[in-house]
Automatic annotation (TrEMBL):
It is an enzyme of class 7 (translocase). Its EC number is 7.6.2.11. It catalyses: ATP + H2O + polyamine-[polyamine-binding protein]Side 1 = ADP + phosphate + polyamineSide 2 + [polyamine-binding protein]Side 1. Keywords: ATP-binding, Cell membrane, Membrane, Nucleotide-binding, Translocase, Transport. It comes from the Bacteria. Part of the ABC transporter complex PotABCD involved in spermidine/putrescine import. Responsible for energy coupling to the transport system. This is Spermidine/putrescine import ATP-binding protein PotA. One of its GO terms (cellular component) is ATP-binding cassette (ABC) transporter complex. The lineage of its organism: Bacteria, Pseudomonadati, Pseudomonadota, Alphaproteobacteria, Rhodobacterales. Residues 4-225 form the ABC transporter domain. It comes from Gemmobacter megaterium. GO terms for biological process: putrescine transport. The complex is composed of two ATP-binding proteins (PotA), two transmembrane proteins (PotB and PotC) and a solute-binding protein (PotD). The keyword Hydrolase does not apply.
Length: 225
C-alpha cells in the first residue's frame, strides 16, 4: 500500500472555504474515515486526493511522490462515487473494464481482470447484465469492482452505502472492511454516519467547515466525543 500526506491544502469556491488549510497523514494500509455533516468539505478532499479537483494551494504526496499535478488516470487511486456514476448503457463488464481500457491494458488481460474483480465483490457471472437490471446493492458492488479492477494501492469511497437500506448497509459495511483487509489498500472513506465510521475505521478524521477538527481511533472518539 501507499501512505498519503496532505499538507496545507486549501480550496475555496467564491467565499466558501471548502478546504481550509488541511493537513493529514494516512498510513500505509490504513482505513481512515472522513466523518462530518453535509457541506463540511469531505467530498472536496476526496476529489483532491483523486485528482478531479485542483486545490488553490498545498501539497499532496503518495509515498514520497508529489502528485498534485498528476492527472486522475495516472494516480494509483480507485474511487467510488456517492451515486455510483456507472455507465447505464454499458454492461457490468463494460463498466468494470473501463479503467483498464483507459490505461490501454490488452483486451485478453482485461477480461481476466474483470472476472477477478467481479469475483471479489461476489458478482461472478454478472458480466453481461445491464446496469438497469441490477438492484442497488449490486450496482454498489459493480462500482467497487470498477474501483479495484486495476489494483490501485489507494481506494477512495464517497458515501458508498448511503443509497442502500439499513440491512444491506450493515452487511456491506462488513464486506467493504473485509475487502480492505484482503487487498491491503490504503483506504479513505467518506460518510456522515457516525455509527458507520465507528464500525469500519482504523482512524476517524472529524471534518467541519473545511477543517479537520479531531483525528482519533474509534475507541478514543467513542470515549471522548
Ligand atoms: P455532498 O452530498 O457530498 O454534499 P453535493 O451533493 O453537495 O455532495 O455535491 C455534489 C457535486 O456538486 C459535487 O461534485 C460538488 O463538487 C458539486 N457541488 C457541491 N456544492 C456545489 C455548489 N454550491 N455549486 C456548484 N457545485 C457544487
Ligand atoms: P461534503 O462532501 O462534506 O458534503 P463538499 O466537499 O461537497 O462537502 O462541499 C464543501 C463546501 O464547498 C460546500 O459549501 C459546497 O457547497 C462547496 N462546494 C463544493 N463543490 C463546489 C463547487 N464545485 N462549486 C461551488 N461550491 C462547491
Amino acid at each position: 500500500a501507499l501512505p498519503i500526506t496532505v499538507a496545507n491544502v486549501t480550496k475555496t469556491y467564491g467565499r466558501v472555504h471548502a478546504l481550509d488549510n488541511v493537513s493529514l497523514h494516512v498510513k500505509s494500509g490504513e482505513f481512515l474515515t472522513l466523518l462530518g455533516p453535509s457541506g463540511s468539505g469531505k467530498s472536496t478532499l476526496l476529489m483532491v486526493l483523486a485528482g478531479f479537483t485542483r486545490p488553490d494551494s498545498g501539497s499532496l504526496k503518495f509515498g514520497d511522490h508529489e502528485v498534485i499535478r498528476t492527472p486522475p488516470h495516472l494516480r494509483d487511486v480507485g474511487m467510488t462515487f456517492q451515486s455510483y456514476a456507472l455507465f447505464p448503457h454499458m454492461t457490468v463488464a463494460g463498466n468494470v473494464g473501463y479503467p483498464l481500457r483507459l490505461r490501454k491494458v490488452p483486451r485478453t488481460e482485461i477480461a481476466d481482470r474483470v472476472d477477478r474483480a467481479l469475483q471479489t465483490v461476489q458478482l461472478d457471472g454478472f458480466g453481461d447484465r445491464r446496469i438497469d437490471q441490477l438492484s442497488g446493492g449490486q450496482r454498489q458492488r459493480v462500482a467497487v469492482a470498477r474501483a479495484i479492477v486495476f489494483e490501485p494501492r489507494i481506494l477512495l469511497m464517497d458515501e458508498p452505502l448511503s443509497a442502500l437500506d439499513k440491512k444491506l448497509r450493515d452487511q456491506m459495511q462488513i464486506e467493504l472492511r473485509r475487502l480492505h483487509e484482503k487487498l491491503g489498500m490504503t483506504t479513505v472513506y467518506v460518510t456522515h454516519d457516525q455509527r458507520e465510521a465507528l464500525t469500519m475505521s482504523d482512524r476517524i478524521a472529524v471534518v467541519n467547515h473545511g477543517r479537520i477538527m479531531q483525528l482519533a481511533t474509534p475507541l478514543d472518539l467513542y470515549e471522548h466525543p
